[in-house]
Amino acid sequence: MIRAVLIDNEPLALHYFQNKLHAFQQIQVIQTFTSVEVFLNELPSMEFEAIFLEVKLQELSGLEVADIIKTERPQVSVIFITAYHEFALQAYEIGSLDYVLKPISHARLEKTVARIEHEFSIQQMLQQASQTVLNVQCFNQFAVYSNNSLVAFKTEKTKELFAYFILHPNIPIHRDYLIEILWPDLDYVRAKSNLHTALSYLRKTLNTIGYENCIVFSNKYYIFEKPNIVCDLYDFQKLHEDFSRLEIPSISLINQCLSIYKNGLFVFDDYEWATAYKDKLMKSYIELLEKGFQTTIFSDTERAMEFLHALIEYDPYNEQKLEHYLYTLIQAGLHEQALKIFQTYKQKLEEDLALSPSSTLLEISKKLFAQHK
């Protein structure tokens, strides 16, 4: 949630703009002001990520207020909402994120909110990076970096053990369970010895890069007490929580999640215990693609088709979903695209599996395309 403050001398204009922002669930208006003096008095006690203000204000101009904000809190996004176009250059020179002219359309405000979200995510990543030296990459190939240098683990099992801890932070894990998943083919005594060796190597590696005592053992259980690290998986989980909470998530939020996911979890690491976790994340990935497709189908055809092709690539033989996609394309007036998608599916089914589409899908497609020739 991005906390925002609004400043405008006109109470009606302030109320009107606040109502327009209500359409964006990712923005929380925490305070509004008609007085610059009152705002500056309360500024030290307020925490916010964005400020919307008018250029023409009493006491001080909006430009002067923006200059104070960017000097004291450079990470705050400043957005001018005004009827005066002639101050735009000065506003951008101060460091404002956007300059929006009244009257404000929903489409224009949507672009502004997307810019705020992008800036907010960058600030969060910079803040995280400044507080830690360890960066863990889980998507594509599992890799760990300390101060931008690749961390070398003593053995592959040591690395795999750390990967398991990363996926299960702050959770008590029984010693015998770790033995079972990491050394399933060894006898218990030897596997237990291997676990102790791997843990010793892992603790030494973490201690060397400044992460001491983050693996705790108590009553046959190990707990990886998650230290302050940067991890793409944790970033994805947080963003996906935001996505799931919002009724209408923004395209920028969807794109952020997709850019982190890349090709999936541990793509180049054969960790059998991670299969269920991979499947769960893939379901989240497909959910993101479907929402992206639904959101852009009427506004950005090119992007919508990119989402659709990615969906079909991950689930190429699902006729029920294909039927839904075809109906959606037809409703959006994209008849040629729908026909091309169906023909491609039909050809792939014949070439890969020597099968034909079901009679139901053939009948549905026939009716669909007959209606829109």
From TrEMBL:
Domain of life (superkingdom): Bacteria
Signal peptide positions on this chain: none
PANTHER family named in the record: TRANSCRIPTIONAL ACTIVATOR DOMAIN, TRANSCRIPTIONAL REGULATOR REDD-RELATED
InterPro entries referenced in this protein's UniProt entry, alphabetically: AfsR-DnrI-RedD_regulator, BTAD, CheY-like_superfamily, OmpR/PhoB-type_DNA-bd, Sig_transdc_resp-reg_C-effctor, Sig_transdc_resp-reg_receiver, TPR-like_helical_dom_sf, WH-like_DNA-bd_sf
Keyword Zinc part of the UniProt annotation: no
Subcellular location field: Cytoplasm
Major location category of this protein: cytoplasm
SMART domains cross-referenced by the UniProt entry: REC, Trans_reg_C
Family: Belongs to the AfsR/DnrI/RedD regulatory family.
Keywords from the UniProt entry: DNA-binding, Transcription, Transcription regulation, Two-component regulatory system
The protein's name: Response regulatory domain-containing protein
Limits of the Response regulatory domain: 3-117
